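DM from R.C. (forwarded with permission)

"hey, sorry to bug you on a friday — could you get me a structure for this? deadline for the figure draft is monday and I only need the backbone to look sensible"
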Amino acid sequence: MLKTIANVFNGDNENSIYKYKTGSELVRFFNQYFNRKDIYKSPFPSRWRYVVDILQELLQSKKLDTFFTTILSVRYIQSELHISEVEAVQKYKDALAYFNEFLQYDGYYLVYNNDKYMLMKRDNDLTYLTSGGYADIYIQKSTGFIIKKLKSEYYSDRSIRSRFKREFDITKSLSSMELVIDVYEFDYSRLSYSMEKADMTLEHYINNYEVDLEIKIKIIRLILYTISNVHEKDIIHRDLSPTNIFFTNGNIKVADFGLGKDLNVLYSKQTLNTNAVGQLFYCALEHKD
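My reply, with the result:
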């Protein structure tokens, strides 16, 4: 794992995001960012061995997160490659995706939290919560985010994979709306995405608390207001129910756009209907045949 990280950072990998670095440039980097006092002189170990040895030290001293936080910063990438900030943002995304792609084979991944990247062992970081129609739901301990992951039995189903990604894209496009659940990053390598954690569903709230008529009317108005704003963006939900309306810090949040449709996007014929999915008592009447 560390050798692969070193090769990417050194610019030795054919798909590397970073420029090729000489031995002296590597020494200069670690002296600058990690307060080392190394001197570049002959004989010098192979470049990858020099970096791997330092990464091993950082791993043992629990400072490897600092290395990733440094090299994945937009400012560092912009400075190294002499590119614009916009280009550096795309390079950073490419680098993060590439690191996570090969880290997954060792059961690790990089998580951004509190302004730094942390190398986490996946099995220790995710706790299973529940399952939905197509996805399993986890809580990510390192961030407190919810991870929604497509069930493995649907990996080969192109239609469902497309629907799952569209759910993320539609929700992300509504991120400016205060009363729509926030989603963050989509992980192509594991067919999952992160989202904010809610406190409870509307169903749970209604079934477990005494709710007077005035509060019920207020909730209905907030839902109608939100859906009205969603419709103004030419997006329809098609599966609104008390189980996908959440309370987060006392606020109503609409979620689960798995059957959502953006009227400005042309989908394949297969995605023009809900294909008999949805919830029996809440989906539109034309889908209950």
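R.C.: lifesaver. The CA atoms of residues 55 and 61 lie 10 Å apart.
me: no worries. The chain has ten helices and twelve strands.
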